[in-house]
Amino acid sequence: MRAAERLFAEGGYDGTSIRAIVAKAKVNQAAINYHFDGKDGLYREVLRVAFRALTEHQLEHAEELKSMSREEALSQFIRRQVQPLLGRDEYSRHMRIFNWETVQPTTVFRNLVAEEAAPFLGLAADLVRRFIPDADQRTVTVAAIWLLGQCSVFVRNREQLAEPPVGLVLDEQAVEWLSATISNWVVSGLRPLRTN
Amino acid sequence: MRAAERLFAEGGYDGTSIRAIVAKAKVNQAAINYHFDGKDGLYREVLRVAFRALTEHQLEHAEELKSMSREEALSQFIRRQVQPLLGRDEYSRHMRIFNWETVQPTTVFRNLVAEEAAPFLGLAADLVRRFIPDADQRTVTVAAIWLLGQCSVFVRNREQLAEPPVGLVLDEQAVEWLSATISNWVVSGLRPLRTN
DNA sequence: CAGGAATTCAAACGCCGGTTTGAAAAGTGG
DNA sequence: CCACTTTTCAAACCGGCGTTTGAATTCCTG
Which 8-47 positions of B have CB less than 7 A from strand D? Predict the structure, then answer.
């Protein structure tokens, strides 16, 4: 599972052969079929744990956010979202598997999202709702997705952004700055409901 | 080329076989090797035209933006960015090929970005600079990427967002509303340089 | 410790991928 | 029309893929 997670994160479903997985894990090739019912089954399992870990990463701190000011809460949320920028840890690996799916989602993934993404999206929606309490449902939902987009663009394109012409290298300090900057923009973006 | 573009957009590089392309284009299989020097070469060519078309789509209107107010200009830019939400046209197909590359960029793509993305990114940077004229270089660059992220999250996840639990269906009117809403948030987000 | 179930393993199978081949066809300039 | 180059084509080639097989080994229980 650990080997599979790493390789799937690196090369995606199609780009990862079970021969590569068994070589890395030092197990027999047929064992995957025996235990996981084929490559599909193994991938499904990896995807499940990755997805769970990702949403729980935010949800387990959901309670804390409620006791903060709306600005603080939003800032914390954003900090958590951009955290995978820091390194090749487990979290950023899960994020990468997740990213592979966004281009052409597997059925497994579709179901996972349909069934389990609601709490996470709800968390983001709650956060923005504190800024735009009078907005209708659709606006709040869009605002939540909008919020996620502002973080994910940096996470998703991390490697690309590190190269020319951008050359954005992010150490711990820079990530802190980035998250603060985004927070600032989001907060002042949402604060005035209508400006014109 | 046309057949290849469609299929590569649909299934990505690995997910598209030469045999599928030649079947759709009704040409002989060996012809691709003869004319394009293999699958790689064909893909490279498709990628090139897609990339050119994408950046030019924005750049050819760059001049007009300069004569507008900064709010109008930003709004126009955003409208163009979210336009592929509307349908399966050529532009959104190019966007999709582009998306495949963001997960694991080809060398070809890396070079294309390094060589030709600068003008496009510069356009976005110019737009935000009009709101934060005193900001340093890095802040402007980050703001430009941040701006792009707010649009791309809707474009990239269009199909996913149309399903539960979000259920965001976007007709022409809704896209207009979305682009106006994002513009509002971005504008008021950038307007006050510092709020705390 | 015996005996049956669960697990591991090396090898082989069938399939599909991109590429190569060498001959046939079409095009071109003298 | 002829020599020559360029382009098309069907077939074969080779490698990597996921899966299957059947025997060997390990594990567990009575």
Answer: 27-31, 34-35
